[in-house]
Amino acid sequence: MPLPDLHSTRERLRHGETSAADELGAAVAAAHSGSNTHVFLKTRFEASAAEAAQVAAAAPLAGLPVSIKDLFDFAGDVTTAGSLALVQAEPARIDAPSVARLRAAGGVVVGRTNMSEFAFSGVGVNPHYGTPPNPCDARTPRIPGGSSSGGAVSVATGASFIGLGSDTGGSIRIPAALCGIVGFKNTARLTPLEGAYPLSGTLDTVCAMTRSVRDAVLAHEIIAARKVVRVDTPLAGYRLAVATTQMLDGVDGTVARAFERTLRRLRDAGARIDEIPLWQIQDLGSIQSTGGFAAAESYAWHRQLLAREGSRYDPRVRLRIERGAAMKAYEYIELQRARSAWVREVGQALAGFDAVLSPTVPIVAPPIADLAPGGERDEAFFRVNALLLRNTSVVNMLDGCAISLPCHAADELPVGLMAWHGALHDDKILNLAIQIENLLTTTTTTT
């Protein structure tokens, strides 16, 4: 049985069927349960209870619990970004704007969530603080996806209604897909980056994970301080594309079945879906052949910290950051120019389409044990990391927006459907996603 989303909980609050205190108590119980092992790096349950008691019932978030990734400043806390290298840093003086907006809307922060160190991995493994197990499988501990790993698990298990995170190459959408929840990556410029440790200033996006698309709309409106223009266009009113270049390569059986089943249902509901090559995707390898934005820009930020605290970094993360040292200034400038030209070409190829549909990630969550540090498992880690980031990172390079929503059957491991487009198509993507979610939740799901 799916957990109630924020909207339905607010309705219950209005009808006196629950209270903010009751909901916070349930969230705290979930946070203390075995399903939230390694999820929170710091909790503030007593403070959040006092805050919830002061929130007006009419506030958008009504005193309900939210979690924040350990990437964001929270006044009085040290922001460690999931690393040991920053544990001695000065506490934040003020909240990051995104955190402040959630609190001003009536959200109570129950804690800071675990993450891939410095947000530099789509797997979600953290050797310093432990890896939160994916709640989708009670028998086999599986990866949660990263880098917003703890936030995804907190939402999926009932410890929070909104998990504030970041997305540089898929760090919201990957854990959302693997944990069976919703993750919306907005156009990067719409949300403030201040008060969050950077990975790549070019690609970083502040965004959130939720239990439903309508909750994603609300979370985005709060974090971006803007209203989504809502329309009720039926699925028959959308023209959709499926990109066949790379996006469907190496898809495992569970993902393939869920994706094809979803496309069939969308077509049966009247949606027009065309397969297109979108061959420009294959050019990303050559465009980034001298290194990508994340390596170069993270090295520029970490260079001095590495000199002082390099031994305290996750070796896998350090390796990826230090690759940025090799990029020359002219190569970085050429990368910027090549990206701009590529964005224009993809925009032209997508003209006339309302969105592109793809599997969010091509595989279901693998076991944590298969990717633990050491020996051949390091090779497996980097292989899986690249696979998890492959589809989602296309949208970041496009400076676009995307949403991942669950499309798996009840007896399957979670699978995410990604709907995406270029910059500032956010409202259309969200409106489409509401229609897709309504279809998938009202249609009997069979394997």
From TrEMBL:
<dbReference type="InterPro" id="IPR020556">
    <property type="entry name" value="Amidase_CS"/>
</dbReference>
<protein>
    <submittedName>
        <fullName>Amidase</fullName>
        <ecNumber>3.5.1.4</ecNumber>
    </submittedName>
</protein>
<dbReference type="Pfam" id="PF01425">
    <property type="entry name" value="Amidase"/>
</dbReference>
<dbReference type="InterPro" id="IPR023631">
    <property type="entry name" value="Amidase_dom"/>
</dbReference>
<dbReference type="GO" id="GO:0004040">
    <property type="term" value="F:amidase activity"/>
</dbReference>
<dbReference type="InterPro" id="IPR000120">
    <property type="entry name" value="Amidase"/>
</dbReference>
<keyword id="KW-0378">Hydrolase</keyword>
<feature type="domain" description="Amidase">
    <location>
        <begin position="31"/>
        <end position="430"/>
    </location>
</feature>
<dbReference type="InterPro" id="IPR036928">
    <property type="entry name" value="AS_sf"/>
</dbReference>
